[in-house]
Amino acid sequence: QLGRSLRAAGKWGEAAEALGEAIRLDDRSAEAHGLLGLTLRDMGNLPGAREALTKAAERDRKEWGPRLAQ
To answer: How far apart are CA 50 and CA 69, in angstroms?
Structure first.
């Protein structure tokens, strides 16, 4: 997945764009929302991160719910 690879390379802005596009294509993807949340957090956008991580947790509570507390 492009967003995951860009994130791993520290290319936060490009990763956020790729993950946003993934969400536009499939809004049900907990992984895309979660990775977007982590990327936005790393960029210092805490409100955006919280929103994306909340959406991820709504879609997959077991995987993403605990990350809301971090």
So the answer is: 10
Cβ neighbors of 45 (< 8 A, separation 6 or more) are none
pTM summary value: 0.92
The answer to whether 43 and 16 have CB atoms below 8 angstroms apart is yes
Condensed to tens digits (0 to 9), the pLDDT of residues 14-70 reads 999 999 999 999 999 999 999 999 999 999 999 999 999 999 999 999 989 887 766
Question: Are the CB atoms for 54 and 41 separated by under 8 Å?
Answer: no
> Contact, 39 vs 12, CB < 8 A?
yes
Please tell me whether residue 43 adopts helix, strand or coil conformation: coil
Are 35 and 63 spatial neighbours (Cβ–Cβ below 8 Å)?
no
